[in-house]
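S.,

As promised, the 4-fluoro-L-phenylalanine run. Input:
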Amino acid sequence: MSVGSSEKPPVNRAKFATNLGVLAATLGSAVGLGNIWKFPYLTGSNGGAAFLLVYIICMLLIGIPVMVSELTLGRAARSNAIATMQKLSPARQPWWLIGAAGVLAAFLIMAFYSEVAAWVFAYIFKAIQGGILSTDPEVTKSAFNGLVGNPTQSLIWQWIDLAVVGFIILLGVNKGIESATKKLMPILLGLLILVGIRSITLPGAGQGLTFLFQPDFTKLTAASFLIAMGLAFFKLSVGMGTMITYGSYFRDDQDIPGTAFRVAFSDLAVSLLAGIAIFPAVFAFGYQPNAGPSLLFLTIPSVFASMPLGNIFMVIFFILTAIASIGAQISLVEVPVAFLEEKFHLSRQKASIITVLSIVLVGSLAALSNSTLADVKLFGMTFFDLFDYTTSNILLPLGGLFIAIFISWIWGYKKLSAALSNNGQLSNQGIIKVFYGTLLVVTPVLVTIVLLNGLKIIQ
Ligand code: PFF
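Predicted complex:
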């Protein structure tokens, strides 16, 4: 049953088939390059353990409550992000703009995300050829720079990635999204544990663990609070309607708060595993923790170079990372695809093709940011950095802020409580009250302060 919506949900709308499938698809959206590529490099550039702590606080007080809100709204309206906000808001109030900003964010994130996925795809082939396996920072750096500095390679690998994502999206919700993500997550986890064990047994690894787990609060700035909050949004795929869209495929008996907690903590575990795989190696081999977006691509080949059968494991590692990135990309692309399908009555094929081709266009700006367009800067950033920065640190927090305000202040406690308890079938009144209070005050206040402070609007 739809809660709080005056319109009846469409009868034939797709739904995830099983509760495990729901968990896998939602987790498949959260877990991706954010854990394996972004989390380590941002933690490395923002001082390590203290940043990690701020990130966890943002996850608890902002990320999880917004995820619960989005899933709830999506399931209540059973629509794409824009139509959900339209259906559930009082007449003539423009809350649908949140959904529209989400569709824009999906394109901008896909533009740079598909390029990082492109590097991962390229590394699978580099690993097969054997040239990148080295503990020498000079060798791994020149391999990475050679790839990102080459416009043809950057574009072609991005197109390959987008072709794979487009194909899975075309298959639809159940066959494509659900079945692909369910099988692959556990294998990735196993391999990350293996890399982690090798990394912490390297000589000199202790420094890396200290960096990751012993906080030094003097390293925190207003900017690092903003970046930690942005990472929490990005990691949990919230603030832009992805979870509204996925929530619209949720079953009526799904426990939404329970699912959100499980997804968030499993996601955190994957990020920590990636950190444990990378930081000991950073210090053992003499890399810089603040190397930026290249960090993963420099350190991982060195870890594998120092273990038996390293090359084979490295090939598998990058294949699984590519697969994890695809789960996340599918959820990003699903936001505009669901919108185009429902708004303009397009077939899934047409909606998918239009979306992917548009991403190819915007994405080429990000793909060429280290080569042809390296000198083109807006606000001092390349297109790649600009798309990355503005989505995580501005668009997603703003989306999350308004979603929190909408569900607590406008939709209200009664509807929220009915939706989160599955109309009284779950006995989770205590947790519902905690969520309500958090969404009413804590989340909006925190997001506002961190945003204004981090963007230097107030100091
Ligand atoms: N959560 C994904 C990751 O960490 O890789 C990225 C992402 C997916 C962000 C979907 C936003 C989104 F809507």
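Confidence is low (pLDDT under 50) at residues 1-9. DSSP finds 18 helices and no strands in the chain.

- D.
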